[in-house]
Amino acid sequence: MVEQNENRPIVVGVDDSDAARKALAWAIEEASLRRCSVHAVTVWSVDPATDFVWTPSEQIRKIAEEKLSSTVRLAVQGREHVPPIVERAVEGPPAKALVEAAQEAAMLVVATHRGERLRKALLGSVSASCVRHSNVPVVVVRPEPEGA
């Protein structure tokens, strides 16, 4: 019996963190086993509260795309088999954008980051929001333990 989501892509959220690089590596391995593609998605937005020197949105998008391409290049370096990888930079709130990008996927892969507990308690985390709102299975890749 052929599984319904056998050829659907694996969507993975990618930023410039070590945890996200680990999630991308996991998604590439899983896609190789499933013989499907990986959709590496980075999310960007214009945040006037942190962008003290106004940066045009087109420039922010371009920087996000360049970081994504660099991260993907490093992730596939030295691999014998690499599944097809589609890179996408999308604008919006991270969790919402990732959940939307994964609507037709086999699964969504996200990383969990270490962070301030208060910030997470007040705002929630991207990974937790993806787990709550995604209509596809979500794999949460944990960061390396501190000192590892």
TrEMBL record:
Extract the SUPFAM superfamilies matched here.
Adenine nucleotide alpha hydrolases-like
Q: Where is the UspA domain?
A: 7-142
Q: Which Gene3D superfamilies match?
A: HUPs (3.40.50.620)
Q: Which family does it belong to?
A: Belongs to the universal stress protein A family.
Question: Protein name, please?
Answer: Nucleotide-binding universal stress UspA family protein
**Organism source for this protein?**
Kibdelosporangium banguiense
